[in-house]
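Retro notes (design track)

What went well: tokenization of the new backbones is finally stable.
What didn't: we kept losing track of which sequence belonged to which structure.
Fix going forward: every design gets posted as structure first, then sequence, in one message. First example under the new rule, 497 residues:
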């Protein structure tokens, strides 16, 4: 009995996970494919079909009429027998005759749908059309010094079609103008530091991994603390990419201590990362991004999530095949074929409903946590791990990962990938959670406003951050200063002279 149950649950679970991970456009394609391959799967008629039907004999029963009870059809294990057929036959007998009225959209629904489609079209026109414009638009969110912004612009223009920076930073730095008197080497070093700072900004933009100079750097930039197998992914990317490429799993296992099975699990997550972050963008235009979820400000001030998936057809089991089971005209082989196809259709319907429920609950939990981000801008993003959302929603962290994968959120502040809302953080002196992005911004602000003749050491930066309520270890300050390409206090003092 246990073995039989496992055989039943595995296909359903696999399909449910696959459907959950699909973005809306890919889900549409999946449904179209299933419609072509499964004759037992049908969809509600369009308004035009219904109008044509009205002009014909209105008393003629349509065998394809959908029924509310059909949407609740649950077909059990393939190994079950006549009980399944009886259930299907009974449903066929109860098909309603008023399906036309049930299926017909009201005038208000038609108008609302038209408004939503017009809004979507207007939104698509307003979105950036090229990868370069898309990145420049995001760059406008940052409060940058003019020289850093100018260099960031230059870096963006030098990205290749895959989003990589193949030109060495030194070649992007301008030489010291002849009319300027000074140390040319110091000038060069200062400009290279500005370029490193600008590159760090570009690498924070979407799509994740853009501005990378190598595959390893590209993949590492896409890692988010809290995602499944975060530490293992970092280890494999930093040390074992070539081993993975050559399938040297025993060698990886020996050097890391991970089992072969665990490495294979991590490898599945690694394949979800994009080695070419700019490949989804054409050379001149950005592909159409259709948001899976939308948020609106409710009267009580809370952001409320809604799924605009009305473009998906309403699926149901075609009653013609249910009646074939009842009539007894079909032979046993045909009846078994119909039963398998009905199972497949019902699994798809249930998986889509589960996707709708999970995606709504996960997104609502994310939005509730990131209200300040939506109110005041990206610099106010809160620390958030996928495990926190998983605990709040009551699902596994891998379910959250699949739910947000390749999904986009339309908000009053713009369109964002759902993964954008997951960031690491620290705790302030008063116990408040602070995102690392906020710490880095404050660190940059302190250095920008320091006395250039007496720049702060890393210990001094720790003290200044503490004055702003941010308790950060010295090694952490050093780590982020280097990651932001900010020179040491001695170098900053030398350049000011």
């Amino acid at each position: 009995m246990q073995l039989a149950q496992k055989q039943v649950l595995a296909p359903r679970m696999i399909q449910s996970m696959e459907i959950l991970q699909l973005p809306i456009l890919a889900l549409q394609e999946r449904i179209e494919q299933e419609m072509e391959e499964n004759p037992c799967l049908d969809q509600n008629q369009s308004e035009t079909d219904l109008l044509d039907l009205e002009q014909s004999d209105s008393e003629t029963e349509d065998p394809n009429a959908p029924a509310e009870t059909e949407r609740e059809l649950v077909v059990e294990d393939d190994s079950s027998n006549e009980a399944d057929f009886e259930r299907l036959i009974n449903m066929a007998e109860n098909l309603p005759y008023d399906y036309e009225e049930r299926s017909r959209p009201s005038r208000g629904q038609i108008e609302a749908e038209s408004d939503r489609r017009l809004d979507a079209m207007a939104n698509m026109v307003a979105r950036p059309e090229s990868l370069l414009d898309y990145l420049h638009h995001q760059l406008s969110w940052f409060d940058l010094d003019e020289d850093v912004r100018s260099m960031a612009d230059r870096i963006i223009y030098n990205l290749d079609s895959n989003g990589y920076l193949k030109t060495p930073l030194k070649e992007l730095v301008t030489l010291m103008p002849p009319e300027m008197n000074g140390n040319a080497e110091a000038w060069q070093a200062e400009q290279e530091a500005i370029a490193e700072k600008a590159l760090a900004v570009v690498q924070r933009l979407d799509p994740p991994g853009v501005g990378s100079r190598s595959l390893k750097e590209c993949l590492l930039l896409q890692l988010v603390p809290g995602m499944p197998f975060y530490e293992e992914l970092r280890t494999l990317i930093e040390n074992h990419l070539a081993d993975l490429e050559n399938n040297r799993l025993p060698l990886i296992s020996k050097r890391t201590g991970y089992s072969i099975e665990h490495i294979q699990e991590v490898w599945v997550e690694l394949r979800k990362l994009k080695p070419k972050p700019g490949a989804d963008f054409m050379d001149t235009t950005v592909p159409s991004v259709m948001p899976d979820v939308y948020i609106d400000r409710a009267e009580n001030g809370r952001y409320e999530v809604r799924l605009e998936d009305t473009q998906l057809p309403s699926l149901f089991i075609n009653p013609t095949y249910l009646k074939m089971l009842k009539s007894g005209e079909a032979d046993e082989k045909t009846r078994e074929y119909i039963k398998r196809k009905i199972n497949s259709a019902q699994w798809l319907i249930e998986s889509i409903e589960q996707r709708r429920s999970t995606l709504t609950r996960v997104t609502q939990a994310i939005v509730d946590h990131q209200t300040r981000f939506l109110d005041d801008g990206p610099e106010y993003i809160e620390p958030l791990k996928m495990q926190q959302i998983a605990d709040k929603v009551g699902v596994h962290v891998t379910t959250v990962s699949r739910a947000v994968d390749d999904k986009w959120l339309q908000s009053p502040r713009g369109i964002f990938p759902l993964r954008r809302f997951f960031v690491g953080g620290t705790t302030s002196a008063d116990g408040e959670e602070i995102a690392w992005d906020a710490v880095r911004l404050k660190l940059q602000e302190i250095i920008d406003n320091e006395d250039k003749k007496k720049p702060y050491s890393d210990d001094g930066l720790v003290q200044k951050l503490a004055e702003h309520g941010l308790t950060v270890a010295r090694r952490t300050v050093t780590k982020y200063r280097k990651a932001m390409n900010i020179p040491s206090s001695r170098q900053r003092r030398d350049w000011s002279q």
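Added context from the reviewer: The chain has three domains: 2-72+79-107+315-350, 131-175+182-285, 425-496.
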